[in-house]
Amino acid sequence: MKAICVTPGRELEVRDVPTPTAPAPGHVLIDMDASAINHGDKTFLRMPAAAGNALALDRHNVWGASGTGTVVAAGAGVPAEYTGKQVAIYRSLGRSPESIGLWCERAQVPYSTCLILPDHVRARDYCGSLVNVMTACAFLEEITAAGHRGVIVTAGNSATGYALAALARSRKLPAIFLVRTEGAREALCRLGVEHVIVTSEGFTDTLGVLSAELGTTAVFDGVGGDLVTRIAPVLPMNSTIYLYGLLGGAVAVSIQSALFMMKNLTVRRFSNFESQTVKDHDKLVTALKALEGVIDNRMFTTRIGKEFRLDQVELAMAYESLDGAKAVLLT
Ligand SMILES: NC(=O)c1ccc[n+]([C@@H]2O[C@H](COP(=O)([O-])OP(=O)(O)OC[C@H]3O[C@@H](n4cnc5c(N)ncnc54)[C@H](OP(=O)(O)O)[C@@H]3O)[C@@H](O)[C@H]2O)c1
Fold first, then answer.
1. Where are the transmembrane segments (predicted)?
2. How confident is the model at residue 49 (pLDDT cuts 50, 70, 90)?
3. Which of 129, 152, 158, 189 to mutate to test the pocket of ligand 1 (most atoms within 8 A of CB)?
């Protein structure tokens, strides 16, 4: 089969590799339909240990972590309900030496890296979704367990931001979304999101008042840099800023030492695959089951920018859209 593989110099190239035919125990074989290229697919190619614990390549060095396809065979121990179903996959939910990455015609992954999609949705619309949905889900589990009762989302107009909006609402957890444009604010409001603030001049005054009122002491930060520098002084007491994304690039965060003292402020990272929800197999399976019941919410879908064939991977990796829509590889 055709597959996009990682070279020793960490470039990508199309190769022919053996098609898997007999699934390993606990694994499913998936005829792939589509794979969105997420930020992680680019970051981890360049920096395998960007989230601390480097992901190993599979035996054929096939790349790709997010996608959708149809389960064509299931190994021993896989629940019967998976066979024949369309699934959304996020490969990094389970590390297994038997895995075969998703940018190929037939992948092999542990069944607990797949979410069964309802028959009435178009699978392709979820080809980049599971990583973002699971990140938001695991984050909410973690902050709730840590005693937080509300959240501020810095990348309000991102896929992770949308997923968090839908899940926070279903938990009735107060959430404030920061966005860069009026258009992004209107789009979220149209979807029923209540607290959306545009990060224009003076927005921190509004944020300070609202966050004190709602008790939003957890910050889900996908941006970093200047935005975190600006919001830190107005966060409520006992806030924790969880850094999970780097949309703001390499700009430094600057926070006065006194603020840490005055507000008992904490800054730490959040990584979905280091979360309890993902690391504990039973919790992961429970979370996937719960998400199955709500996944047909349009806030969880992937914004598709442009579709590419596997042999156009270079163009697909270089693709950038103005509105955050993603390149998608079709199999
Ligand atoms: N740690 C984890 O477990 C984990 C998991 C998933 C993703 N991530 C990371 O999380 C980040 C977000 O991923 P995603 O897939 O959700 O993003 P995405 O859907 O690609 O988000 C793109 C949108 O974010 C907004 N944005 C871009 N740069 C921004 C900036 N500097 N400030 C504010 N907003 C900005 C833009 O909207 P506007 O132009 O309208 O502002 C853009 O349309 C990435 O860095 C990704 O690697 C981490």
1. 241-262
2. confident
3. 158
Q: What is the 3-state secondary structure (H, E, C) of 174-225?
A: CEEEEECCHHHHHHHHHCCCCEEEECCCCHHHHHHHHHHHHCCCEEEECCCH
Which of 37, 39, 130, 131 most suits a substitution to test ligand 1, by most atoms within 8 Å of the C-beta? 39
pLDDT tens digits for 11-20? 999 999 999 9
Structural domains for the chain: 2-128+302-330 (3.90.180.10), 132-274 (3.40.50.720)
> Do 41 and 63 contact (CB within 8 A), yes or no?
yes
Q: Taking CB atoms and a 6 Å cutoff, what residues make up the pocket around ligand 1?
A: 38-40, 43, 131-132, 135, 155, 157-160, 179-181, 184, 222-223, 244-248, 270-272, 323-324
